[in-house]
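Team,

Forwarding the record for the chain on the shared tracking sheet. I've put the sequence and predicted structure together so nobody has to dig through attachments.
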Amino acid sequence: MYKNLAAAVAAASFFFSFSSLSIAQTARAPEPLKVGFVYVAPLGDMGWVRQHEEGRQTVQATLGDRVKTTFVENVPEGADAERVIRDLAQQGHKLIFTPSFGYMEPTLKVAKDFPDVKFESITGYKTAPNVAAANARYYEGRYLAGVAAGRMTQSNVAGYVAGFPIPEVLQGINAFTLGMRSVNPKATTKVIWLNAWFDPPRERDAAMTLFNQDVDVVAFHTGSTAVMAAAQERGKMAVAYHSDMRKVAPDAQIAAVTHQWGEYYTQRTRAALDGSWKSGSVWGGVKEGMIRVGAFGPKVPKNVQDEVLARQADIAAGRLSPFRAVADAVRDNEGKEVIPRGQALTDEQILNMNWLVEGVQGKVR
């Protein structure tokens, strides 16, 4: 009897010790880091927002239950952005990504009121102790797309549907044109400004207007697939931006300039988790894996694909820079020398670009 009683006491003691240990371990388990994302347009299958959403999904898949990620879509720049960013901070999000240029000032404003929250201003350039900035060298992909367009055009006239005349967009237009003219000196680019990032009906109308002006290949810096769909409808060619868009333009797409955010977002979230997060500014491109050109369409011959991929490898290795003048000086479309022969623009000069290169029909406005 005493032996059975002793065994029962031992078993109970083990049970309560195990239970206490489990409770203690559960109590010590840290709460997941709440990470918020703010999207400037509706979430769709392709486009700017889709690429950032894929980045968010990569964070969640990679870091698992250590994080809890959420997003708010279709948030206009300005007062609405500030409200949404502030709400996320008040809800306990300790890391907030704000991927749109017009979110920069609202992000900085909210950050002052939440010094314990870390913010990532994507495409912004201003920083603060708890605000980092990051952007990609989209212009590198634009140059490569220009090489493909220069080889494929028959009319020697390309079109460009552009959002706002900010440096990032000007870099893209200029790099695209320089890429075209590196293989086809007769090529020119016609630009239509929308002063909007996401307006599918106007994006479509702009593309159609360009197609009526001898344009046979078009690029764009807006947020929807409308330009690609217009090109497919008209039997023209187009360069996809943000995402591979062959789903909506299987015949029209000649290549895609895609943005890859998953690795950067994961690195920054991991840094917030382990306490190594610091403010700063990152500007990565092909070399860093943030920009990629590929997803060639069926019309593009293999030799053209190979040429584009070879140039991409040259950029990654530092052998090629879109804004370096090699044989001759580079001039703007008003005849002013903007890159002397044998020289390259500095990052500061690229970031403050306010001109359009020779071969572009349009004005900065």
